[in-house]
Amino acid sequence: MANQTAQNVEEELRKSREVAESSRETEWQGAGFMKELFLGKLRLDLIHPYPLAGSERPEFRRFYDALEAFLRTEVDPVEIDELGEYPAQVLDGLRKLGAFALKVPVEYGGLGLTTRTSPPSSQRTSPSECRSRSSSSAPTS
After folding, report:
1. CA-closest candidate to residue 113, choices 96, 98, 123
2. Burial of 71 (0-12, 13-18, 19+ CB in 10 A)
3. Which of 9, 11, 17, 87 is deepest in the core (most CB within 10 A)?
4. 73, 127 Cβ separation under 8 angstroms
């Protein structure tokens, strides 16, 4: 029975790798500043002027609002600090929100967010944000 379980796990890993590999870009479509610099081309037009944030996508706003509500109501940063790990219900909640698939394309089950829309959600879970919330909820003597 253990051998069958190991075979099932191996088969699932193989299928996961196939999906990951099939979603990989085979040809780069854009120019990147570091790539061009490595090739000896100083392409300042790729970084200056720095792109300003465009209008916010509705799906990002929905995710961000849900994440913020979840962090405020379901996550106890003091408990996480004391335990030294994230409780299973926190990880499960983040998984249900899609927090582990922010940049994964929608067609692969992710949220399809870009690097310009993801940083604010990263800031919500940053240590400084947790400290500011945990200090306000910390017991006083």
Report:
1. 98
2. buried
3. 87
4. no
Which tokens belong to 49?
A: 């002027």
In the predicted structure, residue 57 carries a pLDDT above the cut 80:
no
Tens digits of residue pLDDT in 4-50: 888 888 998 898 888 888 877 777 677 788 888 888 889 888 888 77
Q: How far apart are CA 102 and CA 100, in angstroms?
A: 6
Q: Domain locations in the chain? A: 53-137
Structure tokens at 133: 């919330």
For 55-105, give the DSSP string. Answer: PPPHHHHHHHHHHHHHHHHH--HHHHHHHTS--HHHHHHHHHHTGGGSSS-
Q: How far apart are CA 75 and CA 90, in angstroms?
A: 6
Structure tokens that stand for 57 in this block:
């996508």
The tokens for 32 are 């990147």
Which of 45, 24, 23 has its CA nearest to residue 33? 45
CA-angle at 62, arms to 57 and 65, nearest 5°: 120
**Is residue 127 over pLDDT 60?**
no
Fold observed for domain 53-137? Butyryl-Coa Dehydrogenase, subunit A; domain 1 (1.10.540)
For residue 125 the two structure tokens come to 């879970």
